[in-house]
Amino acid sequence: MIAILSVSDKTGIGDFAGGLLELGWEIAASDGTHRAIGRDVGRISDLARIPALLGGRVKALTVSVMAGILARDTPADLAELQAADIRRIHLVCCNFGALPDRATSLADFQDAVDIGGPAMLRAAAKNCAHVIPLTDPADYPDVIAALNRGEVPVESRTALAAKAFRVSSDYDARVGALFESVC
Fold first, then answer.
1. Whole-number Å distance between alpha carbons of 113 and 82
2. pLDDT tens digits for 22-60?
């Protein structure tokens, strides 16, 4: 089982990662999350199989990562992943960095806008029948407890998906407001 962890809010991420590791999960983390975990875990770039591009603006937006998240547990999808040498992703934990409250120019906020995190979280939420989407540190203990019992029930994954889409939508609304403020 593979989890992608890429969080701006590092609350509880070390314990959450530790819980996953104790259960035998493999972790692929963003650089900042990797440092916060404080354990030897993999990096998202290992799954992407390419280094970060464009000064770090493109890391997770790759076919390897997105296909691994969007794959369903069907023979056809799993065979396609295997043929392309793509690893299946079972959990995506992302939350997004802070945005400024106001801006007077694009330069004030443009580089702070997260693209890869929301894309991964939305893909996981869309595929919640097969992937656990997580964005809120308050949900980490319940997910670990469910995994210790065997799996996170689809009802719980669906509720987590709803939360993920709400968080993503709120983030997009804040980004949109910043763009509008500099028009």
1. 33
2. 999 999 999 889 999 988 899 888 888 877 778 777 777
Domain containing 24 — which CATH number? 3.40.50.1380
Q: Is the pTM of this model over 0.85?
A: yes
Q: Distance between CA atoms of 176 and 156, rounded to whole angstroms?
A: 30
What count of residues does the chain have? 183
What token pair was written down for 78? 């799993």
- Using a 10 angstrom Cβ sphere, with 0-12 exposed, 13-18 middle and 19 or more buried, the burial of residue 152 is buried
Domain extent at residue 121: 2-181
Evaluate whether 34 touches 6 at the Cβ level (below 8 Å). Answer: no
Question: CA-based diameter of the chain, in Å?
Answer: 52
Number of Cβ within a 10 Å radius of residue 142: 13
Q: Which amino acid appears at position 49 of this protein? A: R
Instruction: For 102-115, give one letter per residue: b (16+ CB within 10 A) or e.
Output: ebeeeeebeeebbe
